[in-house]
Amino acid sequence: MAEKTTVAERLAAALAPVLGVDRLPVRLRAWDGTEAGPDDAPLVIIRSRQAIRRLVWAPDEVGLARAYVAGELDAEGELYAPFAALSSTGRLAPGESPGPSVGERLALARTGLALGVIGRQPAPPPEEVRLRRHGRLHSRRRDAAAVSHHYDIGNDFYRLVLGPSMVYSCAVWEHETVGLEAAQDAKLDLVCRKLGLGPGVRLLDVGCGWGSLALHAAQHFGAHVVGITLSHEQAVLARKRVAEAGLTGSVEIRVQDYRAVDDGPFDAISSVGMAEHVGRSKLPGYAVSLGALLRPGGRLLNHAISWAEEATTWNDETFIARYVFPDGELISLGDMVNALTSGGLEVLDVEALRQHYALTLRAWVRNLEENWDDAVAETTEGRARVWRLYMAASALAFEGGKLGVNQVLLQRPGGTPPPLRRDWV
Length: 425
Known about the structure:
Mean pLDDT: 91
Low-confidence stretches: none
CATH architecture of the largest domain: 3-Layer(aba) Sandwich
Order of helices and strands: HEEEHHEHHHHHEHEHEEHEHHEHHHE
Strand order of the largest sheet: 7-6-5-8-9-11-10
Number of helices: 16
CATH topology of the largest domain: Rossmann fold
Largest sheet: 7 strands, mixed
Shape: elongated
Radius of gyration: 23 Å
Strand content: 15-25%
């Protein structure tokens, strides 16, 4: 008599074609405790039949993400190995392949029917967001809503993830063992030196976050800083930090869109981790707006993630767009430089920091995992799962060269000639 096929074996057989492989690159553990797949492969745990129902309706990265965020699907140990294994199939990211065929989806549905998991499409986890009905893309109102979705989830949650520096952008690591705080301090110092800051220099910090760069520029370089953000929660904490540092006479924090700033000129402008929210079509106007706020000879430093492939938008069919950065857009380094120089600014320097961001993200993931219970208490378990998944996946993308991050330093013509050396002193 033939041995009965287990639940895990049936799932593995049905999921492999959906992912475009002959054999799953992970080991599965089903809700009944049965397992199937290579013994030495990363373990993926399907805790609930609901996870399979989600995949029947959305057999792609969104279906998997929904199941993970809802706690219906999990991994044993770190997320890096199972995520890398599943991503290697090439079927999870929209646009990379045609996706599963009708026959493959029907086979998965038949397996689901036999296992009693077929039913109505489950509602997405509450952490999922759609902004399509809330105004024109990259209008001021819609940009404010997108920023609020990502940043206004609790300052204490971000403190657990980011650590005392409260810097939410790529650090600069002298070597891998210096620690996150030292690496972030080195990044802030590098930005200030590239911008030529000094006593009395007027700096506009676009997308100022919780005020870390503004504080560093005022404390260590004597700059006078205007920091702007669209996040009300960020502004509240940034102002508190400024007051506690005794720098209210040197640092002003505003809730303001960059398009609404009208009190230039500034000697320097920093935009660190903000251009990803601007949108490809708006980047030339962004460059013109910021360039017009600079005095002749003033410098702009634009620090932004770049995309190494043709696709440029986190569209509505991606996990990132639905859960992390609604309306976010990435473009190549070349396209970014073209957009920034279209307003008449001159490029002084370009520095790539891709490997530095991989180290930064892994440090944030460690912080989150080490403070998991507190992080869940500050927001929701689903939100903590979103951040864990997106940061771990992003670390792998930077390590693999799919994503990059670059600092482009530009100068408005006139005034002081650009430096001849790259030590930025």
